[in-house]
């Protein structure tokens, strides 16, 4: 989950103390896309701006995967139950179906009707609060990747009324597309940040591995403070799923925008966020929602039991006494700078 995407943010940080590479200049392109911000930083001897080309990449992906864009491929599918996918939609759908199987159904792009039922969709909700139990039960009849069929580049559904929302994975995919675009231009050192989902390669202009800091809510949940230390990204991707950007409070319970596809209930546990490092941002983004739904102990156990996915994570959660604490997978600390 998510926004086209709204996540616990990561801010770019660099370290001092090294000489700038003489032949390369730090370049930056930034703007707004996919309902959030983006910043692309890279080192290049060519100072010609890539802004227009980067903007066009966002435009192409939005035409494929944006629920906000009338006529997009994803909206065509949701209206008709079938669509001829382009390369972007096909890559995202296939990754989503893989992750669905890998997590026992905890990641499911057919969750769209539930997202809207809980008031986190593109359109404004008709009411605020917990949906009636009978509404959740009726909506659950349309949830399940088992209803999707992929044949080549053709996507269809076996059940009328099934709709998809790729917001929980498309942003990470976009980050990697932008990274690959830079690499194809021969750029070897870059950092791509789209709404707090990032990928990095090489080093920054100070000859240091690109580093980011993770936002950490205060106990009062009104301000955000960085975790002590930075996270280094040596040719890795990183993504975060959290409950303190899009949520509503009912009684003493906070319900976040991440919806459990097996129960139909919005996230309401003690986890504030989980940040996942993987070989690429696409993978990190695919697994951050399932990991936050698993919870701290089960999520860390899952990472350790499945080394083939190359995941590491840090959980930030609220303890019973109200204090904010962190828990790490065993390999995550190698990326930390204390």
Automatic annotation (TrEMBL):
Residues 1-18 form the signal peptide. Its EC number is 2.7.1.180. The keyword S-adenosyl-L-methionine does not apply. It catalyses: L-threonyl-[protein] + FAD = FMN-L-threonyl-[protein] + AMP + H(+). Mg(2+) binds at residues 168, 285. SUPFAM superfamilies: ApbE-like. InterPro entries: ApbE, ApbE-like_sf. GO terms for molecular function: metal ion binding; transferase activity. Magnesium. Can also use manganese. Keywords: FAD, Flavoprotein, Lipoprotein, Magnesium, Metal-binding, Signal, Transferase. Its cofactor is Mg(2+); Mn(2+). Pfam families: ApbE (PF02424). The keyword Phosphoprotein does not apply. Belongs to the ApbE family. This is FAD:protein FMN transferase. It comes from Chitinophaga niastensis.
